[in-house]
Design a protein that fits this description.
7% strand, Herpes Virus-1, three-stranded antiparallel β-sheet, single chain, two-stranded antiparallel ribbon, protein transport, 296 residues, membrane, 7 strands
Length: 296
C-alpha cells in the first residue's frame, strides 16, 4: 500500500536532517560531560568506568521521556524546525506519530543499542567465545549484516532524502517541516573572525622572534632623575648595579648582566649617557672601586 506523501514545501533538506543528528549527539556529549564533572566532585567518577553504557542509556531515556515522548521530535530537530510525522502504509494524510511509534523509537534507539553493546562486551571475554563458538560466530554475522544494512539505508537516504536511519523505516516515521521549508541561511561572521584571528596569530608567531624586545623597551624608556649620578646607578636599569661593570671608553657604570646582554643581543652597547658604542665584551671592566660603595 502507498504511503502518504509529504508536500514539497514541507520536505526537509538532507543536510538539515544530518545537522539535527549531529546536534543530538553534541547535546548528549554535553550532558554526559556535565554529569561527569558533578560526579567527580562527589568522588563518584568511577561510575563512568563501571557503568558507562548504563549512564549513556539513562541519558538517552531521559531525553526521550522529557522531549521526544511529548513533542514527537528530538532537540536537534527542534533547533532546525523539524519533527516526525507518521507515514504508515494505508494512511491517506499525514498525522502525528502514535504512542506505539514513540515506544518503537525508544526500543530501537535506546534499548536495543544498550543490549547489543552489552552483548559485544560479553563476546570480548575469551571464556565466552571459547565456550560458545557458534553464538560468537552468529553475533559477528549479525553485526556485519547490520553494518551493510545501515550502509545501504544511508546510500538510499542520500538518493531520495528519506529515512536517515533504519529505525525510522521500522517505526514508519519521517522528518518534515511542519511550518514549511525555511531558507537555510549560513552566517559567516564567526568563521571570518576566527580566520582573521588565526592569520594574525600565525603572523605574530612568525614576526616576534625577529623583534628585539629589549631594544624596543629601551627606545620607549626614559632615564629617571637619579641617573644623573653616574657613579652609583646602572645606565640601563637605573638601579644599584649588580656586579658593577665600567665601560672602558667612557667610564660609565652598568650592571654586568645589562651590558653583556645588550652587546650579545644587539651586537653593540650604546651608552645612554654619551652615545659611545661598545661592540665587544672586552671593553667592559669590573669596577672594583664601586663594590664597596654599592654594598654600603
Amino acid at each position: 500500500m502507498d504511503e502518504p506523501k509529504i508536500p514539497n514545501g514541507n520536505l526537509p533538506l538532507r543536510v538539515n536532517q544530518l545537522d539535527a543528528e549531529a546536534s543530538d549527539e553534541f547535546i548528549h556529549e554535553i550532558i554526559l560531560e556535565k554529569l561527569r564533572d558533578v560526579l567527580k566532585y562527589l568522588q563518584l567518577s568511577n561510575i563512568f568506568t563501571s557503568y558507562q553504557l548504563e549512564v549513556d542509556a539513562a541519558i538517552k531515556f531521559g531525553l526521550w521521556w522529557v522531549v521526544f515522548r511529548k513533542q514527537r521530535s528530538t532537540l536537534g530537530q527542534q533547533l532546525l524546525d523539524l519533527e516526525y510525522t507518521s507515514v504508515r502504509p494505508g494512511a491517506k494524510t499525514l498525522s502525528a506519530i502514535t504512542r506505539v511509534q514513540s515506544l518503537l523509537y525508544l526500543i530501537c534507539n535506546v534499548v536495543t543499542p544498550y543490549l547489543w553493546a552489552r552483548l559485544r562486551e560479553l563476546q570480548a571475554i575469551r571464556s565466552f567465545s571459547d565456550s560458545n563458538p557458534h553464538l560468537d560466530k552468529l553475533i559477528t554475522i549479525l553485526q556485519t549484516t547490520w553494518q551493510y544494512v545501515n550502509l545501504l539505508n544511508f546510500v538510499t537516504f542520500l538518493y531520495n532524502g528519506q529515512f536517515l536511519h533504519v529505525y525510522e523505516r521500522i517505526c514508519g516515521m519521517r522528518s518534515f517541516h511542519p511550518k514549511g521549508k525555511q531558507l537555510r541561511e549560513v552566517g559567516f561572521e564567526f568563521s571570518n573572525r576566527e580566520i582573521m584571528w588565526h592569520g594574525f596569530t600565525e603572523f605574530m608567531t612568525f614576526l616576534l622572534p625577529y623583534i628585539n624586545m629589549r631594544k624596543v623597551k629601551t627606545m620607549f624608556t626614559f632615564s629617571s632623575a637619579k641617573s644623573s649620578d653616574g657613579s652609583k646607578f646602572c645606565k640601563e636599569c637605573d638601579s644599584y648595579p649588580t656586579n658593577p661593570t665600567r665601560v672602558a671608553d667612557c667610564s660609565h657604570i652598568y650592571c654586568y648582566h645589562c651590558a653583556a646582554s645588550l652587546v650579545t643581543t644587539d651586537g653593540a652597547l650604546e651608552c645612554k649617557a654619551c652615545n659611545v658604542k661598545i661592540t665587544s665584551l672586552g671593553n667592559l671592566e669590573r669596577a672594583q672601586h664601586l663594590i664597596s660603595l654599592v654594598d654600603a
